[in-house]
Amino acid sequence: KKELAEHEKTRKQFLKECKLLSIIKHPHIPKLIEYGQSSDSYYIAYEYIDGISTLELLQFSYRHKHGVAPPIAAHLLRSLLSILRYLHTFAKHPIVHGDISPDNLLFSPKGEVHLLDFGCIQQIKTGESKYSPWLGKPSYLSPEQAKALPWDHRSDVYQAGVIFYELLTGQKYISGKTSRDCVLIAANPPKKDFSKVLPDRK
């Protein structure tokens, strides 16, 4: 979009995303094919990966008020944490995704889990945390992100935990009427008792 291309901060974040994706080589992260500028707009092209998003699985769970099978939830979590380990131990400076959310996780027909959408990506120097205005979905923000505090790779892990909770329970971890409500709740997240939410899976 022209208005985004003209926004300097947005332009810099877009170029950062492209630069980092060009050096990331992981079988479960889509390959960057091409990026550039055409007239007054920027574009980016990823490798196409067939599959369904975790969001689709969760929407089914929300409707039926029951979580997915625990082995499926565990498989997704293990796969996601493996991808995050690769990013968080990347070369000398960890790479953080910043927007681990159900619509950014794809199940391929073979059951492989792929991590998508690196629009909030950051690279953090050793020993540093990062403040960035580029944040993910309000319902999946870590408390640090929701409070506009410096955050690091632990926010990715926290977001993965939120998704795991929702997969097991079929319930939203953070639910608000508006995005602002979700951010306020995410800043001081509720403590969930699994023995009450999943009485048959203590």
What does this structure look like?
The chain is α+β, with helices and mostly antiparallel strands and 202 residues long. 42% of the residues lie in helices and 12% in strands. The chain contains eight helices and seven strands, in the order ααβββααββββαααα. It has helices at residues 2-5, 8-23, 54-64, 70-88, 143-146, 153-169, 179-187, 194-197, and strands at residues 32-38, 41-46, 52-53, 95-96, 105-107, 113-115, 122-123. A three-stranded antiparallel sheet has the order 3-5-6. Strand 1 and strand 2 form a beta hairpin. Helix 4 (70-88) runs antiparallel to helix 6. The longest helix is centred in the middle third of the chain and has 19 residues, at 70-88. The radius of gyration is 17 Å and the shape is globular. The chain starts with a helix and ends in a 5-residue tail after the last helix.
Which key terms come to mind for this protein?
single chain, 202 residues, alpha+beta, three-stranded antiparallel beta sheet, two-stranded antiparallel sheet, 7 strands, globular
For the secondary structure, the number of strands is: 7
Averaged pLDDT: 88
The chain-level structural class is: alpha+beta
Radius of gyration: 17 Å
pLDDT under 50 segments (min length 5)?
none
Supply the number of helical segments. Answer: 8
Distance between the termini: 49 Å
Largest sheet, described in full?
A: 3 strands, antiparallel
Strand order of the largest sheet: 3-5-6
The run of helices and strands is HHEEEHHEEEEHHHH
Task: Bin the helical content.
Answer: 40-55%
Name the overall outline. globular
How big a fraction of the residues is strand?
5-15%
